[in-house]
Design a protein that fits this description.
By secondary structure, the protein is α+β, with helices and mostly antiparallel strands. The chain has helices at residues 20-33, 70-81; strands spanning 3-11, 37-53, 56-68, 86-93. The chain has one domain (3-93): Alpha-Beta Plaits, CATH 3.30.70. A 4-stranded antiparallel sheet has the order 2-3-1-4, covered by helices on one side. The protein is globular and about 40 Å long.
Length: 94
């Protein structure tokens, strides 16, 4: 039984090769590789952090709306923890 989720992901764009759109789509492909069906990708944009976190002053916020099995969320989180361009990730049921 799949559910609809909203995933807020903050990307580290410091020193990226290529465009931000390429980075956003590659993270979306990683979500799909773990069984998520993307419905919508909302780029919120670059926001400055309240304090420097892991030597970063800001990040690019992206909201991924997708449908997935509840067991897939743990797999997605584990996979994106290995991606050094993903600074922060948070998921909730819509």
């Amino acid at each position: 039984m799949s559910r609809k989720y909203e995933g807020l992901i903050v990307l580290n764009t410091k020193g990226i090769d290529g465009s931000i759109d390429d980075l956003v789509s590659s993270v979306g492909k990683e979500l799909e590789a773990e069984g998520a069906k993307l419905e919508e990708v909302q780029q919120i944009g670059r926001r400055k952090f309240a304090y420097n976190a892991r030597h970063l002053e800001s990040g690019h916020y992206v909201n991924y709306l997708f449908e997935a099995d509840p067991n897939a969320i743990q797999k997605i989180q584990a996979r994106l923890k290995l991606n050094d361009k993903v600074h922060l990730q948070h998921y909730q049921v819509r």
